[in-house]
Design a protein that fits this description.
With 242 residues, the protein is mainly alpha-helical. It is 50% helix and 11% strand.
Length: 242
């Protein structure tokens, strides 16, 4: 049986005609700014965050403990409130942003191009190429030469984290950051997750204890069927940590 292999190079016939769509803010897409003056916009922080979920308790990805917004920071704690998890997320984002700026081969770039490439780097650790092992596009030269339609097309066609890459392409070319997802909504979903898996769906007693504690901190209520002694433990722990 013949195997169909997709090409790893782009041609002009592949280019997505972004000019057929509405540019939400041409100033953001067209105005070049000095790289050293740029930082992640509030819009791209929101875009990255809405791809994630908040989890108050520790789970494992392989052997790596993760908590909050999918990081290891705070995994040995009593659990992370959404605000605590967000603080760790911002710290992690800023570390990755500093590394990203050292790699970016431009002295001047628009806010939307900066944001889109930062998102790509945040999720993949790479801005020189995008795609899967089966189909990977080299995009560094497109970036150097300001060929943003080519970069955005590569994102659309890459197949890696498809929805995220397509969103980055729309940010890059159209200043379209998509619909927002508030942290309150994310927090509500995380609390619902706790209620759904409680009490038997946790990997360990530690995770169960973290969930019970953070649920109390976030709602000022106890999860159902907790013993009075456990309730007192949580209240005492919360008092000590104020």
């Amino acid at each position: 049986m013949a195997t169909f292999v997709l090409p790893n190079t782009l041609t002009e016939n592949d280019l997505v005609e972004f000019d057929l769509f509405t540019n939400k803010d041409s100033t953001l897409t067209d105005t070049k700014l000095v790289l050293t003056d740029l930082e992640a916009s509030a819009s791209i922080i929101s875009y990255i965050l809405k791809q994630k979920s908040w989890q108050a308790y520790t789970t494992y990805v392989g052997t790596t403990p993760v908590i909050g917004y999918g990081l290891s920071s705070g995994s040995d704690s009593n659990g992370l409130t959404e605000a605590e998890a967000y603080s760790y997320f911002i710290q992690d984002l800023k570390v990755k942003e500093r590394a990203f700026k050292k790699l970016l081969p431009l002295a001047n770039i628009s806010q939307t191009n900066y944001d889109a490439l930062l998102s790509l780097y945040y999720f993949t650790g790479d801005i020189s190429s995008t795609g899967t092992p089966a189909r990977k596009f080299k995009i560094n030269n497109y970036i150097v030469n300001d060929q943003w339609q080519w970069v955005a097309t590569a994102l659309v066609l890459s197949g890696n984290q498809r929805n995220i890459r397509q969103g980055e392409a729309k940010i890059m070319m159209l200043a379209d950051y998509g619909s927002s997802k508030s942290r309150e909504t994310i927090k509500a979903q995380g609390l619902q997750d706790i209620r759904t898996v409680y009490p038997d769906g946790f990997d360990s007693v530690k995770s169960l204890n973290q969930a019970e504690y953070v649920y109390y901190l976030e709602t000022n209520r106890f999860l159902p069927k907790m013993t009075q002694s456990r309730k007192r433990q949580i209240v005492n722990l919360a008092s000590r940590n104020q």
